[in-house]
User: Which sequence fits this backbone?
């Protein structure tokens, strides 16, 4: 397992390969509905896999093998420019100029970088590309939520969601194609294809949303104070802490003050609980942390978030208590999906209060977003409010997240790429015609 975790976060590794489970029984790769899993005393519950048997996707280089300048940190860009023939003494200044074009003005055509000499623009164009994922489809929900299906190198697809609100606009981005983990309530976790996104593909999601919203500044126009993409959450497809280095480098680019310049408190990384990587989120990225908590006993969390079997509640909570820089102004968000009859009792709420004692925390209650074939139902409004009341009286801010973009399947945990859906429907057609 450890090998898997480090391989997944190793930049030079393009594949994530889930280890085969110790038992070869196919049964253990199948999703078992919660009701069955909990009532079963046999091996299905205790041995439900942490990871699924995924098909890994090789990462292909950009078209023509030219390096992509998008997604490089400043240091990486400096080395790349020097390697392409930029004199060392000029390299830092050149990085500053290119950086401003790409990340401040949103310009991705070297020819439009008019403060660079023509020869230098040619040198850049001959050696590099500036590429972001390609938008394949864009759906706009009745409530204004936008869902983009974007294609990355190799032809695979991920989803990106933009959620406009009155005082902010949140962009929910993906860190992997699919997810190797098998949370039983999550649609993404059923996807059989998995690959880590590159830093370029992660930063690129922010850039393409700004393109679509027409948010890049216009030279000479007064500075716009209200930002359309004001917050970024790593809550799309994938487990960001299994792709740590690429996520970190991408967020450094997004936070850089001379570019997109989103402050570190405007970025939230959500994890299912990869305990050994949690502290690094604070020290190496500095953004806010959200934990997909979802249960108050190990028995229930083992079923909902199977990674709990590797790092159980006590270890997860210890990592949260020790989270560098955690304070009342930098609280950890505990996400809690409300599943009817599974984790939504008053006893659960009281237990949650006890578990969170001593941790500067807020709790985000997420009404379960149903997807076709999901083994759970959303808790009733009464249940959710009763749960929220208990937490509120114990002193926790407890917003109930309004489901957004449900009509376009854009809500939390519903994201799954169209390639995968297509593959499934192709298979159905195939088996129907056999
Ligand atoms: N892999 C990371 C981040 C992506 S999931 C993680 O698990 O934290 C983002 C959030 O959506 C998580 O809190 C996840 O538990 C939640 N989620 C997944 N499926 C859901 C569903 N069907 N309804 C509501 N929330 C869901
Ligand atoms: Fe992966 Fe997060 Fe879905 Fe779990 S909830 S399967 S970790 S994307």
Assistant:
């Amino acid at each position: 397992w450890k090998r898997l975790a480090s391989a997944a976060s190793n930049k030079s590794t393009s594949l994530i390969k889930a280890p085969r489970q110790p038992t070869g029984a196919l049964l253990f790769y199948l999703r078992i509905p919660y009701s069955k899993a909990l009532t079963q005393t046999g091996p299905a519950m205790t041995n439900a896999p942490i990871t699924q048997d995924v098909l890994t996707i090789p990462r292909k280089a950009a078209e023509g093998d030219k390096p992509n300048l998008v997604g490089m940190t400043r240091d990486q860009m400096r080395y790349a420019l020097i390697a392409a023939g930029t004199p060392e003494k000029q390299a830092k200044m050149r990085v500053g100029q290119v950086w401003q074009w790409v990340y401040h003005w949103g310009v991705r055509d070297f020819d439009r970088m008019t403060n660079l000499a023509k020869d230098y623009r040619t040198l850049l164009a001959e050696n590099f590309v500036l590429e972001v994922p390609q938008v394949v489809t864009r759906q706009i929900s009745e409530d204004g939520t936008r869902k983009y299906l974007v294609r990355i190198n190799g032809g695979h697809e991920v989803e990106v969601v933009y959620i406009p609100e009155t005082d902010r606009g949140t962009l929910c981005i993906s860190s992997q194609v699919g997810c190797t983990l098998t949370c039983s309530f999550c649609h993404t976790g059923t996807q059989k294809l998995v690959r880590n996104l590159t830093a370029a593909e992660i930063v690129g999601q922010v850039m393409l949303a700004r393109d679509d919203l027409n948010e890049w500044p216009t030279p000479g126009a007064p500075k716009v104070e209200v930002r359309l993409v004001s917050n970024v959450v790593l809550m799309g497809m994938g487990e960001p802490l299994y792709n740590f280095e690429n996520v970190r480098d991408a967020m450094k680019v997004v936070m850089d003050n001379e570019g997109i310049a989103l402050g570190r408190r405007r970025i939230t990384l959500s994890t299912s609980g990869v305990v050994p990587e949690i502290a690094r989120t604070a020290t190496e990225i500095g953004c806010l942390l959200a934990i997909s908590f979802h249960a108050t006993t190990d028995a229930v969390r083992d079923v909902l978030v199977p990674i709990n079997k590797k790092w159980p509640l006590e270890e997860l909570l210890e990592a949260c208590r020790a989270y560098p820089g955690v304070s009342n102004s930098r609280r950890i968000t505990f996400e809690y999906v409300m599943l009817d009859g599974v984790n939504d009792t008053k006893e659960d709420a009281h237990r949650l209060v006890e578990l969170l004692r001593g941790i500067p925390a807020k709790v985000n209650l997420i009404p379960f977003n149903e997807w076709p074939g999901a083994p759970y139902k959303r808790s009733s409004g009464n249940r959710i409010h009763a749960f929220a009341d208990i937490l509120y009286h114990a002193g926790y801010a407890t917003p109930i997240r309004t489901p957004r973009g449900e009509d376009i399947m854009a809500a939390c945990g519903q994201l799954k790429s169209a390639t995968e859906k297509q593959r499934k429907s192709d298979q159905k057609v195939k088996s129907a015609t056999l």
Observations:
- Residues 132 and 208 are 7 Å apart (CA to CA).
- The longest helix spans residues 88-104.
- The chain has a mean pLDDT of 84.
- Residues 179, 183, 185-186, 235, 238-239, 270-272, 292, 335, 337, 366, 368-369, 412-414 surround S-adenosyl-L-homocysteine (ligand 1) (CB under 6 Å).
